[in-house]
Structures are given as structure tokens and as C-alpha cells.
Amino acid sequence: MSKAMKALKNLSANELVVKTRELEKTIFDTRMKKVTGQLADSAMIWRLRKDLARVKTLQTAANAKGKK
């Protein structure tokens, strides 16, 4: 398990929702920077999307546990 995933596992459900919103906003802002030519590191979008996927995976797992 990656360090990022271990750090995210310690977050509560509300914190995961906040983190999701933050990542979505950051991804949007980064995409706009790319379009306007202000983004130097285009791989940043890829990394942010992977982080968002990690957070959403943990949210889904928490929801599945809650339904059992």
C-alpha cells in the first residue's frame, strides 16, 4: 500500500468528502492553467486524478462497510 493511501485511510468520512471537493477544484484549476499555457508540469493532472481515484475508492469502501 502506498504512503498516500495509508495517509488517506486515517481520514473520516467527512474529511474524505472535503478532500474530494478540494481535489476536484484543483484538477479544474490545473486544467484551466494547461489550456492557457501557464502549466509547466502537465503530469500534475495525472497525479491529481489518481489521488482523486484513491479518495473515491476509500469512500466507496466506507459506504459498503456501513451498509453491511
Explain what the structure shows.
By secondary structure, the chain is mostly helical. It has a single domain (3-61), classed as Helix Hairpins (Orthogonal Bundle), CATH 1.10.287. It is built from three helices and no strands. The protein has helices spanning 3-9, 13-36, 43-67. Helix 1 packs across helix 3.
Strand content: under 5%
**What form results from the Cα inertia axes?**
elongated
- List how many beta strands DSSP finds: 0
CATH domain class: Mainly Alpha
**Major β-sheet, in short?**
none
Indicate the mean pLDDT.
Answer: 90
Oligomeric state, counting identical vs distinct chains = single chain
The CATH topology annotation reads as: Helix Hairpins
Task: Give me the Rg, rounded.
Answer: 14 Å
- What count of helical segments does DSSP give? 3
Helix content percent band: over 70%
Number of domains: 1
Overall structural class, as computed from helix and strand content, comes to: mainly alpha
Report the uncertain regions: none
SSE order and pairing:
Layout: H1 3-9, H2 13-36, H3 43-67
Helix pairs in contact: 1-3, 2-3
Brief overview:
With 68 residues, the protein is mainly alpha-helical. It has three helices and no strands. It has one domain: Helix Hairpins (Orthogonal Bundle), CATH 1.10.287.
